[in-house]
Design goal:
The protein folds into 2 domains: 3-142, 60s Ribosomal Protein L30, Chain: A (2-Layer Sandwich); 149-308, Alpha-Beta Complex (Phosphoribosyl-aminoimidazole Synthetase, Chain A, domain 2). Helix content is 31%, strand content 27%. It has helices spanning 3-13, 64-80, 101-118, 166-175, 184-191, 197-203, 217-228, 243-252, 256-262; strands at 20-22, 29-31, 35-43, 85-96, 121-130, 134-142, 157-161, 210-212, 231-235, 269-273, 280-281, 284-293, 297-302, 305-308. The model is unreliable at 54-59 (pLDDT under 50). It is globular, with a radius of gyration of 19 Å.
């Protein structure tokens, strides 16, 4: 079925009743008073492999602390992608009976370390026993002017923060044991994909459409184009692909452009604006990578040729 089709199916069943300003389809829902809400679920064997599993395979670097960090970053990134300031995080925890108090402590310390940076707090949740580790995180935030996926305008430029494909570069470097030192920056982004809150708040007044790169630029830019009913063109030569990503692609015989467009979990900001955007904001690189025009669809310009971009990132119901 695919995630997009399933979301459309759900949207056709549930009905608005006046409580929600922005509902299904964006990074968060928005209430009338400017409160934003989001929920994300993460499961052992899907998003990570917990350290206490008897057959841990290659993801053994994911300690309980690392799981807490990455899951908190992923959930709170949705709040940041609305240009909102995070407030409260609720943790629904399904914990295996084999887990120790030390491991659960590590998990919450990881979550708390992210909350400390972003200025929010864990305010409760629920705990059940299960055969594997599962986290369902719900976060709130606050903004008077939420930035939506549907707000891109013809004439805008398309921008992205940081380096594209960095997190997946770090994951594959660890997976293939290519040497963490050689891929230091990418491994760091994989382990700690801290949402770009300060950048989002500083640029909020200049941003039109906004999303975070959780599923890969190809998928997330397509969301912007579809929800804003515009045509977005990405320029391959402008993609901020790091030397580490190019090195990884060379070793694994991957195309660096396709890799960068389809790699997810960077949790960078992908946004459009008609304003002049600096190349660095709060010491974070910002790159112009494309344009927005009248029309529809997602396109890629490469080596002077423009074509529809069919490439997609990860879809939970279809796989990668």
């Amino acid at each position: 079925m695919g995630e997009d089709r399933l979301i459309r199916l759900i949207s056709s069943i549930v009905k608005p009743r006046g409580h929600v300003k922005v509902g299904i389809g964006d990074d968060c829902c928005v209430l009338a008073d400017g409160t934003v809400l989001t929920t994300d679920c993460y499961a052992d064997g899907v998003h990570f492999v917990a350290a206490d599993r008897p057959h841990r395979s290659h993801w053994s670097w994911m300690s309980y602390s690392s799981v807490g960090v990455r899951c908190a970053c992923a959930c709170l990134s949705d709040v940041v992608a609305m240009a909102a300031r995070p407030g409260v995080l609720l943790v629904g925890l399904a914990v295996p009976k084999s887990a120790t108090s030390s491991q659960v402590s590590q998990l919450y310390r990881g979550i708390e370390s992210v909350c400390a940076v972003l200025g929010c707090e864990v305010a409760g949740g629920d705990i059940i026993a299960m055969d594997r580790l599962v986290l369902c995180l719900s976060a709130t935030g606050r903004t008077d002017h939420p930035r939506l996926r549907s707000a891109c305008r013809a004439g805008d430029s398309l921008y992205v923060t940081g380096s594209v494909g960095a997190s997946e570069t770090g994951r594959l470097a660890l997976l293939h044991r290519l040497g963490a030192r050689s891929f230091r920056d990418s491994v760091a982004r994989h382990r700690l994909p801290m949402p770009r809150l300060r950048v989002a708040l500083k640029l909020a007044g200049k941003v039109h459409g906004l999303i975070d790169t959780s599923d890969g630029i190809a998928t997330d830019a397509r969301h912007l184009a579809e929800m804003s009913r515009v045509r977005i063109t990405i320029e391959a030569e402008r993609l901020p692909v790091s030397d580490e990503t190019r090195e990884l692609c060379s070793r694994l015989r991957l195309d660096p452009v396709e890799f960068s467009l389809s790699s997810g979990e960077d949790y960078e900001l992908l946004f459009t604006s008609s304003h002049r955007i600096p190349k660095s904001v709060n010491d974070v690189r910002v790159s112009r990578i494309g344009s927005v025009a009248r029309g529809n669809g997602l396109y890629l310009t490469q080596s002077g040729r423009t074509r529809p971009l069919k490439l997609s990132g990860y879809d939970h119901l279809r796989g990668s």
